Amino acid sequence: HRAGGRPMTVTEVRSPERPTAGDAALVASLKRPRYEIFPLDGVEDEVARHIPAEVKLTITASPSKGMEPTLKLAERLRRRGYDVVPHLSARLVRDREHLEQVIERLEAADVREVFVIAGDPREAAGEFACAAGLLSAMDELRGRFAEIGISGYPESHHFISDEATIEAMFEKEPMATYIVSQICFDTDVIAIWVRRVRDRGTKLPIWIGIPGVTDKRRLLRISFKIGLGESARFLEAHRGWLARLLRPRAYSPTKLLLRLAPTIADPAARIGGLHVYTFNELERTENWRRELVAQLTRDNDE
User: What is the pLDDT of residues 228-258, one digit of tens each?
Assistant: First the structure.
């Protein structure tokens, strides 16, 4: 940001030597993003006010409130014409009967896509402790969904080891259709992780997870809560970034995206698109997206 808080333009944040060959791919990804939202009071009205129907919405599952708020919001937004992707949290599903009830409810609401995760509760509500177990239990019920997403972690998960997350991703791969990466602020780490996933033979499209526009202090709190920056290596490498993050201004992912453009444009990377963690900052994030698309489009036309 410039003095006075005005967001910097693409031209101002782009380094002079940076190639622009990836901008077309970046624009295409920005035109069809996925927005992740929390099922909190008032979010349905915020979506209706600010988000166009062509933006797909993924809905998280609360470890404290269970699956019900996720399912209710998915049903309501679907009736409003939005494509929705509810999170199915394995640790919130009690048993196979509960799983079948959830799936039948989603089918009745014409929900054709789900995102299957282990979930954040340390204690499982029933027999499913991991996403792979829930996916296996779905068995032929998986055929009721056109798309099934699973998670990937360029950096460490907050309470699952790197080795476990890698093994879990490959175990889940045959039962899924795409991967969504957790937020990472280091473009080199993202690019290396994508390459390693491909080197191991995984061909599922990867949706790169990025934060939306939100207050920097809030983003810092959330980042530590979900485990980002937990390692000494990350903190040591990002001292300046953390210092800037403490300033009371809004974070914008523009720089991150410009640096990610070559990875997004690389056919070998098989990037499906952008998964935007909005933290329910829907108006600011959507305004940023539209402005960035307009700026990049103007730049490419000149």
Answer: 544 334 444 555 655 555 555 788 999 999 9
- What CATH number did the domain enclosing 198 receive? 3.20.20.220
Q: Is 70 in a helix, a strand, or coil?
A: helix
Q: What total of structural domains would you count in the chain?
A: 1
- Structure-token pair, residue 80: 């409003």
Q: In whole angstroms, give the CA distance from residue 84 to residue 146.
A: 12
- Distance of alpha carbon 162 from alpha carbon 230, whole angstroms: 13
Element counts in the chain: helices (H) and strands (E): 13, 10
Q: Domain range for residue 230? A: 19-301
Question: Is 22 within 8 Å of 10 (Cβ atoms)?
Answer: no
Query: How far is it, in rounded angstroms, from Cα 285 to Cα 295?
Result: 15
26 phi-psi bin (left φ>0, alpha ψ -120 to 50, beta other): alpha
Which range among 30-39, 53-62, 144-153, 210-219 shows the weakest confidence by mean pLDDT?
A: 210-219
pLDDT tens-place string over residues 181-219: 998 888 999 999 999 899 888 999 999 999 999 887 777
Is residue 19 helix, strand or coil? coil
For residue 53, give the DSSP letter: T
Domain-embedded: residue 173: yes
More confident of the two residues 226 and 82: 82
Give the predicted TM-score (pTM) of the model.
Answer: 0.86
